[in-house]
Amino acid sequence: MKPNDSASHYLGHRSRLQKRFVENGIKGLQDYEVLELLLTYGIARKDRKPVAKALLKRFDGISGVFGAEIHELKEIDGVGEKTAILINLMQSLMELCVKERTFQKVKISSPEAVVEYCRVSMGRLRDEQFRVIYMNSQNEVLSEEVIQEGTVDQAVVYPRKVLEYALKHKAVSIILVHNHPGGLLKPSRSDIELTKRLKNISEEMGVRVHDHFIITRDGHYSFYENGLL
């Protein structure tokens, strides 16, 4: 195939993918075609299908691709800095959209909505992270704070820091959230002890702990639903 013919071929293929997306939405495309279409905005005049398929294979599906770090994406042949940033940006945009829908009018609509947001924003984190969502008496979100990153245990997650934010934001209730990168949907003894400690100290200050969620890539665990709060 001559250079001009090659360029015409890829431009024509991109146009066909765009047309199918416009007419049928994302359901009209296979996963590799979704990525292939996105890659047309980052990789010029080149066959993107092998790159799309390599990404899906390396990261075990499309959600894994969008949850990958920039340096990991660049390990795939054909993915440069610009393309890696584009893919990573899409994940960040998805997080913002889910967060906005979850906290619409800065009010939590349901526990399920909180879980959905946290799974999008935390489910694929490589390291453990502990967050607290602070609310007023109307369950309106005042703030979301990352309290600790790395190993989360009661020696590291200081109740003082959690309560300092509660006082700062004048919160009357909180939701505790942390992730298990390994995928285990079961609280450790340290998780349980930390939750009890935070609950007792918070309630002494007039701040109610609504729930503590453990988040993984594929699911969640509620301390409240399992009788641990």
UniProtKB/TrEMBL annotation:
Key words, A-Z: Hydrolase, Metal-binding, Metalloprotease, Protease, Zinc
Molecular function (GO) terms for this protein are: metal ion binding; metallopeptidase activity
Which residues does UniProt assign to the signal peptide?
none
A single GO BP term for this record reads: proteolysis
Which InterPro entries did the record assign?
A: MPN, RadC_JAB, RuvA_2-like, UPF0758, UPF0758_N
Pfam families with a match to the protein in the record: RadC (PF04002), UPF0758_N (PF20582)
Show the CDD domains listed in the entry: MPN_DUF2466
Where's the MPN domain?
Answer: 107-229
NCBIfam families tied to this protein: PRK00024.1, radc
Instruction: Write down the PANTHER family for this protein, in alphabetical order.
Output: DNA REPAIR PROTEIN RADC, UPF0758 PROTEIN YEES-RELATED
Put simply, this protein is called UPF0758 family protein
**Could you tell me which species this protein originates from?**
hydrothermal vent metagenome
Q: What is this organism's lineage? A: unclassified sequences, metagenomes, ecological metagenomes
